[in-house]
Design goal:
The complex is a heterotrimer of chains A (109), B (86) and C (352).
Chain A (H helix, E strand, L loop, with lengths): L1 H28 L3 H27 L3 H30 L17
Chain B lengths: L1 H21 L3 H26 L5 H24 L6
Helix pairs in contact in B: 1-2, 2-3
Chain C lengths: L1 H21 L3 H21 L3 H23 L15 H17 L17 H12 L5 H9 L1 H21 L20 H23 L8 H19 L1 H7 L2 H24 L14 H34 L20 H8 L3
Helix pairs in contact in C: 1-2, 2-3, 3-9, 3-12, 5-6, 6-7, 6-12, 7-11, 7-12, 8-9, 9-10, 9-12, 11-12
Chain lengths: 109, 86, 352
C-alpha cells in the first residue's frame, strides 16, 4: 500500500511537470495573445494541482497536507480570476481575438 | 524524482521568462509574469520537500497571494489608471 | 545540483536586470521588477534563508510593484530617451569604482568560511544559546527580537520615518474630493468582487497566522504587516478607494505607525520601570523563558502594526493623488487634465 501511494505520487508529479512544460512551450509558440492564455491556464489548472497532489500523497496526513490543500484551493480560485481579468483588460484595451494585430494598428513585431 | 519535478518547473519558468522578455504586447508580459509567479510557488513547495523543511510552505502560500494581488493591481492600473477610475 | 540551481537563478537575475535597463515601456519595466524580486526570493530560499525570502517576495514582488504602479499612474507611461551625450566619463567612473570595490573584497574571508570573524564571536553564541535562553524554535526571530532588539527598534523607527517623510511631502486628505458621479451602469467587476470577498478574509487570517506563528516558523512582524496591507490593498483595488477608507478611516490610519513604535518602545520603558534595563525582557515575568516570550510577542505586534499601517498609508497617499487621471499612452507630456499638482488644482476649484 505505501508502495502504491509512492508510485501514484511520483506519477502525479511527473505528469504535472509534463503539463507545465507543455504549457510553457505553448506560451512561446502559439501565435496570438488569447490563445496564449489557454496555454498559461494549462499550467495553472493542471500542472499545479497535479504536482501539489503528488506532494500531498508524499506527506501523508499531517499539517503539511492541510497547507498544501489550502494552496491548491487558493490557486484554483485565483488563477482563473486572474486570467479572466487579463482577458477582459486585453479586450478592453483593443486586442482583437482571432487577429494578430491590435485594433489601433500596432502590428506584432 | 523531486529533482525531475524541479527541473521541469525550472524549464517552464525559463519559457515563461522568455515570453516575458519577448512579449509582443504588454498583456503577454503580464501573462508571462503571472505564470512565472505560479511556477515560483510550485518551485518553493518542491524545494521545501527536497530540503526537508516543510515550514517553507508558508512562503509558497504568501507568494501565491502576492502574485494574485500583483496581477490584479497591474490590470487595474494599466487599464483604468487607478482603483477608482472607470 | 544546488550549484546548477544557483547558476540558473543568477543568470535569470542578470538577464532581468539588463532588460529593466533597456525597456522604455515603464509598465513592462514594472513587470520585470516584480520578476527580479521573485528570482531574488528564490535565491534566498536556496541559500536557506526563508525569513528573508518571505519578506523579499512579499515586499518586492507585491507592495513595491503596486507602489510603482501607483506612481506611474501619476506620471507618464513611457520613459523619454535621454539626449545623446558622451557616455565615456560616466563609464570610466563606474569601471574605476567597480574595480576598486572588487579589489577591496580581496581581503574579505571566503563566502561561508568557518573561520570568518562573523561566524566566531556572537554568531555561535546566539545559535547555541538561543534554545536555552529564549526557547523559541525560530532562531532568526530570537536574534531579531531579543538579542538584537535595539537594532530592530531602529528598523521600525526607520520605517516610521519613511512614512513621516511621505506624509509631510504629500499628505493624505481628510475628506476625498467629490469626484465620482453616480454609477448607473452594471459593474464590470463582478467576478473580481466575488472572488475578492472570498479571498480577503483568508489573507487577513493568514497575516495573523504569520504574525503569531513567527516564533516557530518563518514569519514575524514585518512579513505579517506586509501581508495585512496587501489584503486591504486588494480590497481597495477591487471595491474602490472610498470603501477602503471606510474600512480604515484616515484618522485612525494616520496614528497607527506611531502607535506601533509606541508599543515597541513602550515595552522597553515598561522593563525600565520594572527594574531592568531598556528592553531587558527578564523584568517582565519571573520565569526567564516566559518573560522572553512575552517581550517578543509585544514587540512583534508593534512591528506588525507599524509596517501594515505604513504600507497602507503610502498606498492611499499615492492613489489619492492619482485619482481621475487616465493612463496616458505615448510621450508623457501629461494627460488632458493639464495640471502639475493634483492636490492644489482640486482644492481650489473642485474641477479637474
Amino acid at each position: 500500500m505505501p508502495l502504491l501511494i509512492d508510485l501514484l505520487s511520483w506519477a502525479l508529479i511527473l505528469v504535472g511537470g509534463a503539463f507545465g512544460v507543455i504549457g510553457g512551450i505553448g506560451l512561446l509558440r502559439l501565435p496570438e495573445f488569447f490563445s496564449r492564455i489557454h496555454a498559461a491556464s494549462i499550467t495553472d489548472s493542471m500542472c499545479a494541482p497535479c504536482i501539489i497532489a503528488g506532494l500531498m500523497l508524499q506527506s501523508g496526513l499531517t499539517l503539511v497536507t492541510v497547507k498544501l490543500a489550502f494552496l491548491v484551493v487558493f490557486l484554483f480560485l485565483t488563477s482563473p480570476t486572474a486570467s479572466h481579468a487579463l482577458a477582459k483588460a486585453a479586450l478592453h484595451g483593443g486586442m482583437d481575438p482571432g487577429r494578430t494585430r491590435r485594433l489601433d494598428g500596432e502590428a506584432e513585431s | 524524482m523531486i529533482i525531475a519535478a524541479i527541473l521541469a518547473i525550472m524549464v517552464t519558468m525559463a519559457l515563461a521568462a522568455t515570453r516575458a522578455l519577448l512579449g509582443h504586447t504588454v498583456y503577454d508580459r503580464i501573462l508571462a509574469v503571472n505564470v512565472f509567479g505560479t511556477k515560483t510557488v510550485l518551485l518553493i513547495a518542491a524545494l521545501a520537500f527536497l530540503t526537508g523543511r516543510p515550514d517553507v510552505l508558508d512562503i509558497a502560500l504568501a507568494y501565491a497571494l502576492i502574485n494574485f494581488i500583483g496581477v490584479i493591481a497591474v490590470l487595474r492600473y494599466f487599464e483604468y489608471g487607478g482603483p477608482d477610475n472607470d | 545540483m544546488d550549484t546548477v540551481v544557483d547558476i540558473l537563478l543568477l543568470a535569470f537575475l542578470a538577464i532581468c536586470a539588463i532588460s529593466i535597463l533597456r525597456l522604455r515601456d515603464l509598465f513592462a519595466m514594472t513587470m520585470m521588477f516584480g520578476l527580479f524580486s521573485l528570482i531574488s526570493a528564490g535565491l534566498f530560499t536556496t541559500m536557506d534563508a526563508p525569513d528573508v525570502a518571505f519578506t523579499e517576495a512579499a515586499v518586492g514582488a507585491g507592495i513595491s510593484t503596486i507602489l510603482i504602479l501607483a506612481t506611474l499612474a501619476q506620471t507618464s507611461r513611457r520613459e523619454q530617451a535621454t539626449p545623446a551625450r558622451s557616455k565615456l566619463v560616466p563609464l570610466a567612473v563606474v569601471w574605476v569604482t567597480g574595480a576598486v570595490l572588487i579589489y577591496g573584497t580581496a581581503d574579505l574571508p571566503a563566502f561561508g568560511d568557518p573561520d570568518a570573524p562573523v561566524h566566531n564571536h556572537v554568531g555561535p553564541h546566539y545559535i547555541q544559546e538561543s534554545g536555552k535562553e529564549i526557547g523559541i524554535p525560530n532562531v532568526v526571530a530570537s536574534v531579531l527580537a531579543s538579542y538584537r532588539g535595539y537594532d530592530t527598534l531602529g528598523e521600525v523607527v526607520v520605517v516610521f520615518a519613511a512614512v513621516v517623510g511621505v506624509m509631510s511631502l504629500l499628505g493624505l486628505r481628510r475628506r476625498p474630493p467629490g469626484l465620482r458621479p453616480a454609477r448607473g451602469k452594471p459593474d464590470p467587476n463582478d467576478v473580481l468582487k466575488v472572488i475578492a470577498t472570498m479571498v480577503v478574509p483568508v489573507i487577513l487570517l493568514f497575516a495573523l497566522y504569520v504574525q503569531f506563528h513567527g516564533e516557530y516558523s518563518p514569519g514575524g512582524g514585518f512579513q505579517a504587516g506586509v501581508i495585512f496591507a496587501a489584503a486591504i490593498i486588494l480590497y481597495a483595488l477591487v471595491f474602490g478607494l472610498d470603501k477602503a477608507r471606510q474600512v480604515i478611516p484616515p484618522k485612525v490610519l494616520n496614528r497607527l505607525p506611531a502607535a506601533g513604535v509606541l508599543i515597541y518602545g513602550g515595552v522597553g520603558v515598561v522593563t525600565l520601570l520594572l527594574g531592568g534595563n531598556f528592553l531587558e525582557y527578564y523584568a517582565l515575568a519571573e520565569d526567564a523563558k516566559t518573560a522572553q516570550h512575552m517581550g517578543i510577542l509585544f514587540i512583534e505586534i508593534g512591528v506588525g502594526v507599524t509596517v501594515a499601517s505604513v504600507m497602507l498609508l503610502i498606498y492611499f497617499i499615492f492613489s489619492e493623488r492619482g485619482r481621475g487621471k487616465r493612463p496616458d499612452e505615448g510621450n508623457g507630456d501629461g494627460d488632458g487634465d493639464g495640471d502639475g499638482d493634483g492636490a492644489l488644482s482640486r482644492d481650489e476649484g473642485g474641477t479637474a
